[in-house]
Amino acid sequence: MTEEKMRFEAEVSRLLDIVVHSLYSNKDIFLRELISNASDACDKLRYEAIAKPELLAGDAEFKVRLLTDNVRNVLTIADNGIGMNKADLIDNLGTIANSGTAKFLDAVSKSDNAKDVDLIGQFGVGFYSAFMVASQVDVLSKKAGEDQAWKWSSDGKGEYTVAEAEMEGHGTQITLHLTDEFKEFTEEYRLRHIVKTYSDHIGIPVVLMKADGDETLNEASALWTRPKSEVTDEQYKEFYKHNSHAFDDPWKTIHYQAEGAIEYTGLLYLPTMRPFDLYDPQRKGHLKLYVRKVFITEGADELLPPWLRFVSGVVDSQDLPLNVSREMLQHNPVLTKIKNGLTKKVLSELETAAKKDGEGFDKFWETFGSVVKEGLYEDQSNRDRILKIAKFRSTKGDGWTTLAEYVERMKEGQKAIYYISGEDIDALKRSPQLEGFAAKGIEVLLLTDPVDEFWMPSVGQFEEKDFKSVTRGGADLNDVKSDDNEDSKDEKKDDTASDASLDALIASIKIALGTGVKDVRESDRLTSSACCLIADEMGMDLRMERLMKQHNRVDEISPRILEINPKHSLIKKLSDVAIKDAKAPILHDAALLLLDQARILEGEALPDPVSFARRLDLIMEKGLGA
């Protein structure tokens, strides 16, 4: 027998070190992970055997077997599932192909809290938990339909071996050579307790092999087929962790049976933590599809829309054929009706939670709101329901608000729902474009999710109130009654540059900036800042255009409108210079500095930082010499 020695890839070595030394406080978890993997292997073979019955080779009674040897301190977990060949062993156990692993390791390295790193199952690497309790792990496996068996062995310290082996039947046997510290995992009572606690929901028998007769340790019936009254909260939680490879507890559990023209059972979970692939561009779902308890496929996009891709669980249909293919799923009218029913059920659960569990819903929205809002853009049939539960940050305190609550607080004369978008909420609160709105007591929504740029123009309005960006023209602030009823236009005018001098300054700035701006004009939205950039009323919003450029959808950022504050002391002084000498050299440099200042406030890179620094030096030098 030729034995081939290989090294783990770097990420696996790092992961093993974390698993062995610091990951789990509860060592029982390793058995749950290995039994879960064995169950999945049986599910996969059951599905493959629909088209190729010969794969079962007379061994159609699926089970997971536990064998103990407390003399040699050995525990074996065996299944008669799909099995693995040499390539599978290397790909699955020696290399982590899952792109989320790097993210997991990065999260662990930055975390100071052990609870934050109890995520290994989410990344599909639960097998490595075996090294918490074992000094050596041997995996003997033969893939269904193949003749050659293979043995994989490792002590978890950087290397592993793969060699040809002999094995009767198909499946996988994982043998753990337990360290003396964990001899307890060969004791029958200990195994019985662990399986009952963590794996009672497994749909195939977990059998303890004993000299005096084998003992089935679990219920061995699919959890979703049981009546709700017979399932405990703990069983629901454990099934969620098994099915989703998660370590958090679910926020909501939805278990129901649809009857009528189409019959199906749904067991859905709303998580408390984000799946690692939540923002993966493929936007794959996390539901498993069964047909009459036979596993068909995982991540079926046809079961829920992409904006609900964080929902996990199972759907078991009575009306689909057992030999249904992926191609058939994409165009199956039964599945379309199931998808509509599941979507409505999840939305109903969210609507109820929004009314009855405000604090819990706020936490949910903080975690998943950015994904749910994708439905506002792409799911017109459910748009109104999503819009009513959607929550937002605003300039009205630090909490969340709904659009209905915003509308109730609108000022007299206010005709639109105002918003501003950007990458950072604290930076948004300091935006100069908000100053005039704050002075009038007008609430502004603070949007930090990129998807907001897409659904806002698509939806257009809420309760007949248009959405308007404060970084665009046409704010109509003069129509809104101010909180300060004593202010008058005449009193405000006394504190501004004269119309003639302001016009002279604007003309001078336009000449200096040329095509660098679309226009220069007086601002009614600024109260303390000297200037700001805005988009034209009919143009693309500032952040939207930046996003488009980042994704190469536009070549260049289009020229903006520069608004200047006639009440600002700098603008008044520059206006005085302009009315005396419109060609004064300082006006040219000041105009370019104002534009660069406005760009900085928008978080944009300056096109010419060297020239900006030079002009700033000159202005400061003149100021110090005055």
UniProtKB/TrEMBL annotation:
Stretches for region A: 1-326
Region (C): 547-626
Domain of life: Bacteria
Keywords per UniProt: ATP-binding, Chaperone, Cytoplasm, Nucleotide-binding, Stress response
UniProt-listed InterPro entries: HATPase_C_sf, Heat_shock_protein_90_CS, HSP90_C, Hsp90_fam, Hsp90_N, Ribosomal_Su5_D2-typ_SF
Protein's cellular compartments: Cytoplasm
Residues bound to ATP: 33, 37, 79, 84, 92, 99-100, 122-127, 172, 326
GO molecular function, one term: ATP-dependent protein folding chaperone
HAMAP family cross-referenced by the UniProt entry: HSP90
PANTHER family (UniProt xref): HEAT SHOCK PROTEIN 90 FAMILY MEMBER
Subunit structure of this chain's protein: Homodimer.
UniProt record similarity statement: Belongs to the heat shock protein 90 family.
Function comment: Molecular chaperone. Has ATPase activity.
Listed name of the protein: Chaperone protein HtpG
